Amino acid sequence: MDLQTRQILVRKAARAIGRAGLAHAYGHCSSRVDEGHFLVCAPEPMGLIPPGLEGTIVPVEGALPEGVLGEVRIHQQIYRRRPDIGGICRTMPPNAMALAALGRVPKVRHGFGSYFSPGAALWDDPQLLRGDEPAAQLAETFGDGKAILMRGNGAVTGAETLERAVVLTWYLEDACRIELEALRCGLAESAPTLSHEEALARATDKGRIFERMWDYLTHGDPE
Fold this sequence. Notes:
7 helices; L-fuculose-1-phosphate Aldolase
């Protein structure tokens, strides 16, 4: 993918996240360029990023370029540890925010939740991550999974591509919605969950599963 095409991809991903209500004034997304660099969206509210506003190339190792938001260190640290990851979203979906503020992560209860089995991780610290050390600790907690909830502070998803990371953000938010409903009706401890084997069988990418959700989230995008 050439750089111009990747710039468009990052802008489309950012706007999709904003339009879907998965982020407001805060958040960012990125796409890996090569082993040592990634492209992060402009430091603006993601839903308001206009066509043509370029993101910034950031090194996986080293200081952040001038103007790049401090929490983009999270992207650096995850890319550094996970060569399989090609896209990252740092977002603040409302249900994920609420559940994380309770110090909880969603159990694997339905189809969309199956993609996170055996479960999303939890970063149990409400502070912003604007230093290398805490960002590295979060990346270690993220481990080999696909998502981490940050207590009172949103979520991070990572996947093979940015498109998939965006879709996983939507899936994660829906899993958190289900978990909050289970808590509201008092069934969080007794309601059924999927076994890891059931989740692996359900978490398919066949039938253009990710592509269809990406098309849905980006429908009408100006680029």
